[in-house]
UniProtKB/TrEMBL annotation:
This is FAD-binding oxidoreductase. The keyword RNA-binding does not apply. It comes from the Bacteria. It comes from Pseudomonas brassicacearum subsp. neoaurantiaca. Pfam families: DAO (PF01266). InterPro entries: FAD-dep_OxRdtase, FAD/NAD-bd_sf. Keywords: Oxidoreductase. Residues 31-381 form the FAD dependent oxidoreductase domain. The lineage of its organism: Bacteria, Pseudomonadati, Pseudomonadota, Gammaproteobacteria, Pseudomonadales.
């Protein structure tokens, strides 16, 4: 049996109290069976419950065990490939629909936090930091692009202004998005799970889906029980394994590494990030960081293709942190952990339907916190017969990795090496 307790992260150590949920032991019937209690599954379940569906979630480990409970905790708008790239690929009409949705995920998170009174250290404000003139030029065009789709909470930062929001000498400018922000990701998931249960939804933990019986009345099998449903939503993302072979072929789990320092104290924390915004740089293999509620610095970056756990996370990430903040050289690292996200070749999410009644969303490619909340709404709309927004995602082109599962890891790593080299050389 795989280890299904939370990894030893800062988030697990500071999680709000949550009930231990039983494993599924018998046969149950429901309207919708959701596979996976991460953000995609929880968001889908909440929207469906709010519209009167009966919902059952089966989770292989615990609520928020995967990327939802381990990520950098940053609310970042749009998709891993921006709307202009989508527009070139699918044309103006579909791009308009997707562009209109690009800023909705963050709004959904804030609505959920307010409506269900979720305690997750929600803070407003996210900064994209430019290391080169080329990156600054990209941010200027990104601002124009986002404003075209009605997104107006943006401010370009020159070198003087970015120094006012982050004490790092590396940056020549940036862009502040006040509708961005940050959260304690595991506490958000736990709060959403409590909201699901408050509306009559049922969550079974330690209940991996081992087989889906397809057909007019699909059945999800777990080791000790089964769920008969009218619809299934597959929301396992990077932790789905080979349950649905069609989905495994078109995606690749990747690991990202995160560290959390000891508490820095109010004065040092305020010196580093005076407004308590979160920050990510504009490199292809980007670094990202923010303060926690108890004034630790969480710093993440680096990608391990194929999702192996590196032996020494701190050795990979600490030098990156010290490059940004040499003033932290004597600060102790209290936690280091890794988590998997799911990469697609296009770096756009994959949304669709298998047969008439199995829906899925996967492959946020590193932009999961906001996208998954939107995906839950879009999947719930499709189940209620409103498919326009679902179809806009479902029609995005998707490709299997060249050479199949065997070659996808070296192929992607080679691409990342090339882009990492470009970042270092500044072109």
């Amino acid at each position: 049996m795989a280890n299904t307790s939370y990894p030893a992260s800062y988030y697990a150590a500071s999680a709000n109290p949550a009930p231990s949920r039983p494993a599924l032991q018998d046969d149950v019937e429901t309207d919708v069976c959701v596979i996976g209690a991460g953000y995609t599954g929880l968001s889908s379940a909440l929207f469906l419950l709010e519209h009167g569906f009966k919902v059952t979630i089966v989770e292989a480990a615990k609520v928020g065990f995967g990327a939802s409970g381990r990520n950098g905790g940053q609310i970042v708008n749009s998709y891993s490939r921006d709307i202009d790239v989508i527009e070139r690929s699918v044309g103006p009409q579909q791009a308009q629909l997707l562009g209109n949705m690009a800023f909705e995920g963050g709004r959904i998170i804030r609505e959920r936090v307010a409506k269900y009174q979720i305690q997750c250290d929600l803070k407003d404000g996210g900064v994209f930091a430019a290391l080169t003139a080329k990156q600054m030029g990209h941010l200027e065009s990104q601002k124009r692009l986002w404003e075209r789709f009605g997104h107006t909470q943006l401010e370009l930062l020159d070198q003087r202004r970015i120094r006012e929001v982050v004490a790092c000498d590396e940056y020549m400018g940036g862009m502040l998005d006040m509708s961005g922000g940050h959260i304690h990701p595991l506490n958000l998931a736990l709060g959403e799970a409590a909201a699901v249960e408050s509306l009559g939804g049922v969550i079974y933990e330690q209940s991996p889906a081992v087989r889906i019986e397809r057909g007019a009345s699909p059945v999800v099998h777990t080791p000790q029980g089964k769920v008969r449903a009218k619809f299934i939503i597959v929301a396992g993302n990077a932790y789905l394994g080979n349950l649905v072979p069609e989905l495994a072929a078109k995606s690749m789990p990747c690991g990202t590494q995160v560290i959390a320092t000891e508490p820095l104290g109010d004065e040092l924390a305020h010196r580093l990030l005076p407004q308590d915004y979160c920050v990510e740089d504009c490199n292809y293999l980007l670094d990202y960081y923010r303060l926690t509620g108890d004034k630790r610095l969480i710093f993440g970056g680096g990608v391990v293709y194929g999702a192996r756990d590196p032996a020494n996370i701190e050795a990979i990430i600490r030098p990156k942190m010290l490059k940004a903040f040499p003033q932290l050289k004597d600060v102790k690292i209290d936690y280091a952990w890794t988590g998997n996200f799911l990469l697609t070749l296009s770096r756009l999410p994959q949304v669709g339907r298998l047969g008439d009644n199995i829906y899925y969303s996967q492959g946020c490619s590193g932009h999961g916190v906001t996208y998954t909340h939107l995906a839950g709404k879009v999947l719930a709309e499709a189940l209620r017969g409103q498919a326009e927004r679902f179809d806009a995602f479902a029609d995005l082109p998707h490709y299997p990795f060249p050479g199949g599962q065997l070659l996808r890891t070296p192929f992607a790593a080679m691409g990342a090496w090339y882009y990492g080299l470009r970042d270092r050389l500044g072109f």
